[in-house]
Amino acid sequence: MRKPVIAGNWKLFKSIGESTALINELKPLVAGAGNVEIVVAPVFTALNRVSDAASGSGINLAAQDCFWEEEGAFTGEVAPKLLKDAGCSHVIIGHSERRQYFGETDATVNKKTKAAMAAGLTAIVCVGETLEERESGRTFSVIEEQIQNSLAGIAPEGVAGLIIAYEPVWAIGTGKTASDEQAQEVHAFIRSLILNLFGQTASDAVRILYGGSVKPDNVKGLMGQADIDGALVGGASLKADSFAAIVNFGV
Ligand code: PEP
Predict the structure, then answer these.
(1) Distance (Å, rounded) from C-alpha 100 to C-alpha 94?
(2) What is the pLDDT of residues 45-64, one digit of tens each?
(3) Pairwise CA distance, residues 148 & 123, whole Å
(4) 168 in ligand 1 pocket by Cβ < 6 Å?
(5) How far apart are CA 155 and CA 134, in angstroms?
(6) Is the pTM of this model over 0.90?
(7) What is the distance between the alpha carbons of residues 12 and 7, in angstroms, rounded to a whole number?
(8) CA 127 from chain center: how many Å?
(9) How far is the CA of 235 from the centre of ligand 1 (A)?
(10) Contacts (Cβ under 8 Å, ≥6 apart) of 103
């Protein structure tokens, strides 16, 4: 059985005060969600204070990115071991906004994922096609290339512990969600790729999240699909009541 994961990506929103206030509001609302791995990803500057605020609640902390080197002359970068030091257990890697605006490639995603794993963080590796790629019938080839290159050289046992987020770019922040069937089709394809590349154990264990305008009213249908193991949530994670309603999808 794969434990469901509901992860909130707070993007570039909220000060330290606003972030800790959100966690404090969220804690009692998700206290009963025992069988869900809850993750929130605040901005870097709020990580440590949110970690303190979340202490004992079972809410896990993720960074929204990391670098692949441990230290050195790399102005502006943050190493995975420093994220651990700040209280993170997870890190989002290769979000489409980083690919679109900051030159992230499958090659850098690969290096970051390996570095995150070496530091003991759970990597949430994002993949997804653009609208143009979907409309020209290239969804599966794009996803295949992203998965193959982003996970190249990682041992099957490592892949088993990863989280993959399938986020169709056309569904992020647009209010357009993939239908349950569209999402399941790609999730099943990703799981079959993992089977072919890394074997049965990794394919059975890897958790694949759907992301793209997940809301309290569509989470149940998505979570009812065989290969959807959770959600990566943007907009709806910025309010305690909507994020809690998503976390509590099964209650
Ligand atoms: C995201 O940022 O990963 C995301 C899925 O955003 P939204 O839920 O707002 O579409």
Answers:
(1) 10
(2) 999 999 999 999 999 999 99
(3) 16
(4) no
(5) 30
(6) yes
(7) 16
(8) 10
(9) 6
(10) none
